[in-house]
Amino acid sequence: MTLRRISKNLARLFLQGLLILAPISVTIWILYSAFFLIDGILPGMVYSVAPKLLGTDAAGLPRRIPGLGFVVFIGIALIVGYISPSWIVSRVVEFGENLLERTPGIKFIYSTVKDFFEAFAGNKRKFTKSVLVSIAEPDVWQVGFITQEELHEFDLQEYVAVYVPQSYAFAGHLYFVKRDRVRILTDISSANAMKFAISGGVAEVEEQA
User: Fold this and answer.
1) pLDDT digit string (tens) for 148-157?
2) 168: left (phi over 0), alpha (psi -120 to 50) or beta
């Protein structure tokens, strides 16, 4: 076996291993980073309120109990979600929201973050209607999502707002386009359409049953 053939086999084996390990490694890294970020919130909060409760480590930083912050965060989220429908809690939340939305500076940050999360998981979800939209050329189409059906505030009666995500990023562009330049995707779920757009068209798309 020649050296050149050995090099080709090694390169092939390396690429095969990379194709298996890369998605797994990136997924684990993202999950670990999210876990570490959430888990690190609690020690600092506890230390600021009761410095002696957790104490400090050798570096003088608030002592961390791995996993405790994450568990507490999940528990608080579940409790808030459970009691949020009650009349008293809903009034308190409404009062707090009104206060934040009327405070200069904070209003912009709070309303933007709130609308962003509600667009994905709240009652006002926006990324549920996937479409093909023609922006520049009549015969060139992009995957997008209708976020607003009516644009009367902009004096655009026959237009809709379409968000077009960028590949390999969570950024995107917002376009106001005429309805006749939009095709609703009925056989592909919004999740698959988003995955296809973000992956640059390399992800496999499964049709809805």
Assistant:
1) 888 888 888 8
2) left
Burial of 177 (0-12, 13-18, 19+ CB in 10 A): buried
Helices and strands in the chain: count of H runs, count of E runs: 7, 5
CA–CA separation, 77 and 57 (whole Å): 28
Neighbours of 185 (CB within 10 A): 18
Interacting residues of 53 by C-beta distance below 8 A, sequence separation 6+ = 46, 47
Look at 83-87, 148-152, 181-185 and tell me which has the smallest mean pLDDT. 83-87
pTM above threshold 0.85: no
Q: SS3 for 140? A: coil
- Owner of token pair 């059906």: 149
